């Protein structure tokens, strides 16, 4: 079935959750006028609906193919990518100096949500480019910026992130790839990287690889890591010493080639430092934090898409009788419950994700507190919104009954595609660890406490207030806990904090609606918001016991005895 | 990786949850001595590990193929099925008069759990046979029993369930297939049935289809439905007028052919009534209740398999450092949390499912109250154990990190296979409706209240007592609620009741362990049981708000506004 961008929902969240009009008062985002916002939402919607959504099924069915080092994307992909470049979509929030439009990240988020909803396997390619643009812009030399930035901002070339190696997944610091100085300012990079998304493809003439490697004499662990820009094609037009050895056979996102990349098999791939030597992690985190928020948007987009598909099916499919008349399954209480739940989770995840991007935008116009808040929110967006994507996609299958399990229906693809999001760009367990190990203590705890204080000042629903109380106590206790106890509690704490923040934001959205904003569709939004506050928030309170579990409990048996 | 049957866990549950020794005191189950129980568990383990598990991957990769009406199962399937028949596994709990061993259903449950864990797509075929045996034994004429029962009990022929038609899914009463008398006591059956598991295959020479159809002048709805036995090959050796038109392309269980069946395209397929005319639903429910409990066991089996795979990977895979040494990921707190959770859910789901089969066994030796309890438990086993299967399989993917998303790892197949179980044999929403519409009111409410009273008399953990209190209030309120309010609350109520009952049973298991039973592996069991009671039970308390949600809340917006 076709996809329709939720433009009016997106606009409401931008207006009343992000409060984008406040951003437009700054010089930097003066272009983000209401008319511009509408034009972007409308244009992104048309591109997603007209160009990307029609390729989603063929992408899943055909997948990308690897033959002798070359990767062929599915039929129609090249043409769609060319139109993506033509439309200038890659540069929406890109730096003006490099040809971008410099619009807010929160507006770009709406665009990326649409692209994810329409065709997440396609959208992954530009998503990585967005991160690379940030990293090169913030840490790259003027020469590198001149050579590469505008090409990535235009979409003429794509970019990749190369962290993972067979022995170095969550433990990035265990990576072994090497870089040695070539004597002319460039470096010779060698090593094997795995799980490299769009590491090779036929969409563009060049691919800009951002590669983590160790320099001679570098210390062990993450402190010894440097970031290199390693292009597929060198500035003089010759091919670099790198290649795609194979691609993976995956559960979902079949059209997105997941590559094993070999660098320097013939002496060393030529690359250039991004940021200082040994400064790789900091430069990579610029890229990764962007990517983490964007992976959260994959959850939002797939939740939106799955909800639309389920509602359409439930309105069409008739089963049983109510009051003597054949009834659409949407009118059966438990199906309606599922649809309301799907919508509630989707609205809440969107609100949380856009809000986090909005905090980044505020940081970019000088609001340091907002920057810290974005840091606190990043693991919540990545962790919870991707869990939401899986839950909603799974509910979407359930709404379809037996048809949901049949691949041609399309509902199953959403779950298969969504299932990667809790894993890549730092597993959700890593996000939870980041939340309890760094984020609740950021700025001496002030960053997290400020969020709680804002919620407390605003929250009206009694369940929301209850969750605030509960979380405050649990976080205070986590701060004083042993590292292992804190990590044992981390996942439920992350979920509780995300649900609380999202609940606060949808309550805010609900007040705007009650004040007359939104118009068409407000009854649906109101039902979803009430369900979120009355049902989903209390479920998060129920996670409190898990956040009180100690390491002693889960470590009482040797792991061997768990199977 | 290889599969190892959890024989000692199964034995503990049979001994201390089912209390199979009490059953063995009856004449009917006198054969179920401790030695026999061990022999069956050991034999089933060997068959599952040695014959079925090695075919699980090829089954997923190759699937069953349809060509011109014939269905070819994957390489190795025919040989494994022949050995299944040779081993006499089909008749373990089958009627002695038909060549079965007449052992308890609760023991057969352990066998089916193993077969599901090893290869659920294979195990589906005998699973449907078990239901057919019950239905023919209870409702079939002596002639039909003589002709068909021993052949199905031996496994020489397989059997299918034919309810669903394109317009009649959850609403079985909407079916249109017809049967008219042929004048010789047989009937001419015609119509199209969809989603028919193993409707056609190459494992046996004959397939016995159990088909619901309407007789001339029958009333609308389920009251007008009769059950027919329609064999692929007629007693005189000629082919019947029926065939497989196509098979489905599914998310999982690829090796299990899901058939569209056409009956009577050339005048009518010959069939015979099972039970009286218009008595089809009652006969079918005999079959379906058995199948529902068995689908619950698919959740248990896949949870067990996913847990084994995840633990093995987490013990093998090293990432990061603790106390200066490389560490297995099983030793990272959040990974350990996932493993303990997987084990906890698996043990609890097994306890609930086996207990329900044990109640059926008690009913079969004359305990009427146990029969009613089995009725109460059936939707809980089907609904919750299949949800557990999906949750644990998804956690299993997560434990593997990026490798979990790669098909060759095997973890993804478990989720793809598990995802059908909440859908077929009555969606979990239908189970929830059955629970609140019929089961909480069964025998004037005494059946459910008796369960609660037993739990209350026994439960010691404070969270379990809290959940008992909570559920009792919510069920009392559901009994007095409007039908729509009751259905709105149905899913969370079903989950809460299942978690409560499972929690009670694992606490019982824990007491046996503390009294010295079990031996090796008890530390792991203790950790899992403590986690279930301390963490998972409180999560179920958190579902209470959803059980208090009213139809007014979810119906406040037209369904069109939910997308």
Automatic annotation (TrEMBL), chains A, B:
<dbReference type="InterPro" id="IPR006091">
    <property type="entry name" value="Acyl-CoA_Oxase/DH_mid-dom"/>
</dbReference>
<dbReference type="Pfam" id="PF02771">
    <property type="entry name" value="Acyl-CoA_dh_N"/>
</dbReference>
<keyword id="KW-0560">Oxidoreductase</keyword>
<dbReference type="Pfam" id="PF02770">
    <property type="entry name" value="Acyl-CoA_dh_M"/>
</dbReference>
<dbReference type="InterPro" id="IPR037069">
    <property type="entry name" value="AcylCoA_DH/ox_N_sf"/>
</dbReference>
<keyword id="KW-0285">Flavoprotein</keyword>
<keyword id="KW-0274">FAD</keyword>
<dbReference type="InterPro" id="IPR052166">
    <property type="entry name" value="Diverse_Acyl-CoA_DH"/>
</dbReference>
<feature type="domain" description="Acyl-CoA dehydrogenase/oxidase N-terminal">
    <location>
        <begin position="39"/>
        <end position="156"/>
    </location>
</feature>
<dbReference type="InterPro" id="IPR009075">
    <property type="entry name" value="AcylCo_DH/oxidase_C"/>
</dbReference>
<comment type="similarity">
    <text>Belongs to the acyl-CoA dehydrogenase family.</text>
</comment>
<dbReference type="InterPro" id="IPR013786">
    <property type="entry name" value="AcylCoA_DH/ox_N"/>
</dbReference>
<protein>
    <submittedName>
        <fullName>Acyl-CoA dehydrogenase family protein</fullName>
    </submittedName>
</protein>
<feature type="domain" description="Acyl-CoA oxidase/dehydrogenase middle">
    <location>
        <begin position="161"/>
        <end position="261"/>
    </location>
</feature>
<dbReference type="InterPro" id="IPR036250">
    <property type="entry name" value="AcylCo_DH-like_C"/>
</dbReference>
<dbReference type="InterPro" id="IPR009100">
    <property type="entry name" value="AcylCoA_DH/oxidase_NM_dom_sf"/>
</dbReference>
<dbReference type="InterPro" id="IPR046373">
    <property type="entry name" value="Acyl-CoA_Oxase/DH_mid-dom_sf"/>
</dbReference>
<dbReference type="Pfam" id="PF00441">
    <property type="entry name" value="Acyl-CoA_dh_1"/>
</dbReference>
<feature type="domain" description="Acyl-CoA dehydrogenase/oxidase C-terminal">
    <location>
        <begin position="280"/>
        <end position="435"/>
    </location>
</feature>
């Amino acid at each position: 079935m076709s996809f329709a961008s939720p433009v009016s929902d997106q606009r409401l969240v931008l207006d009343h959750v992000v409060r984008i009009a406040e951003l437009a008062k700054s010089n930097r985002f003066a272009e983000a006028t209401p008319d511009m916002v509408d034009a972007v939402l409308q244009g992104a919607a048309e591109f997603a609906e007209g160009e990307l959504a029609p390729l989603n099924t063929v992408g899943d069915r055909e997948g990308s193919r690897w033959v002798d080092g070359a990767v062929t994307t599915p039929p129609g992909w090249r043409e769609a990518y060319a139109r993506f470049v033509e439309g200038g979509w890659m540069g929406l929030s890109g730096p003006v100096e490099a040809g971008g439009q410099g619009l807010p990240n929160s507006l770009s988020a709406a665009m990326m949500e649409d692209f994810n909803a329409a065709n997440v396997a396609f959208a992954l390619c530009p998503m990585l480019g967005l991160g690379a643009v940030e990293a090169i812009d913030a840490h790259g030399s003027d020469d590198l910026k001149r050579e590469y930035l505008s090409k990535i901002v235009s979409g003429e070339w794509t970019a990749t992130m190369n962290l993972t190696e067979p022995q170095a997944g969550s433990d990035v610091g265990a990576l072994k790839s090497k870089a040695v100085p070539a004597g002319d300012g460039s470096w010779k990079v060698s090593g094997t990287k795995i799980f490299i998304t769009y590491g090779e493809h036929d969409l563009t003439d060049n691919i800009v690889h951002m590669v983590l490697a160790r320099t001679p004499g570098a210390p062990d662990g993450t402190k010894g890591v440097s970031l290199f820009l390693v292009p597929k094609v060198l500035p003089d037009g010759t091919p670099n010493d790198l290649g795609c050895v194979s691609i993976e056979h995956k559960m979902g996102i079949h059209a997105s080639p997941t590559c094993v990349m070999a660098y320097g098999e013939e002496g060393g791939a030529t690359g250039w430092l991004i940021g200082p030597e040994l400064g790789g992690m900091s430069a990579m985190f610029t890229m990764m934090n962007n990517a983490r928020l964007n992976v959260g948007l994959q959850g939002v987009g797939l939740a939106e898409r799955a909800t639309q598909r389920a509602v359409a099916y439930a309105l069409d499919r008739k089963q049983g009788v109510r009051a003597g008349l054949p009834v659409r399954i949407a009118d059966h209480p438990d199906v309606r419950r599922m649809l309301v739940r799907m919508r509630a989770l989707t609205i809440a995840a969107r609100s949380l994700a856009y809000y986090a991007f909005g905090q980044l935008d505020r940081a970019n116009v000088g609001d340091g507190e907002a920057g810290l808040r974005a840091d606190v929110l990043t693991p919540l967006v990545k962790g919870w919104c991707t869990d939401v994507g899986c839950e909603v996609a799974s509910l979407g299958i359930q709404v379809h009954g037996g048809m949901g399990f049949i691949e041609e229906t399309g509902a199953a693809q959403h779950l298969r595609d969504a299932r990667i999001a809790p894993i890549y760009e730092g597993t959700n367990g890593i996000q939870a660890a980041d939340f309890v190990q760094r984020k609740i203590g950021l700025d001496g705890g002030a960053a997290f406490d400020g969020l709680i204080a804002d919620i407390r000042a605003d929250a009206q629903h009694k369940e929301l207030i209850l969750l605030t109380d509960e979380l405050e106590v649990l976080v205070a206790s986590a701060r004083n806990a042993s590292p292992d106890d804190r990590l044992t509690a981390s996942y439920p704490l992350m979920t509780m904090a995300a649900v609380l923040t999202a609940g606060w934001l949808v309550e805010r959205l609900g007040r705007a609606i009650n004040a007359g904003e939104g118009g068409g569709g407000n009854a649906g939004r109101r039902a979803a918001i009430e369900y979120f506050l009355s049902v989903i928030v209390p479920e998060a309170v129920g996670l409190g016991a898990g956040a009180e579990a100690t390491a002693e409990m889960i470590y009482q048996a040797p792991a061997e005895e768990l199977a």
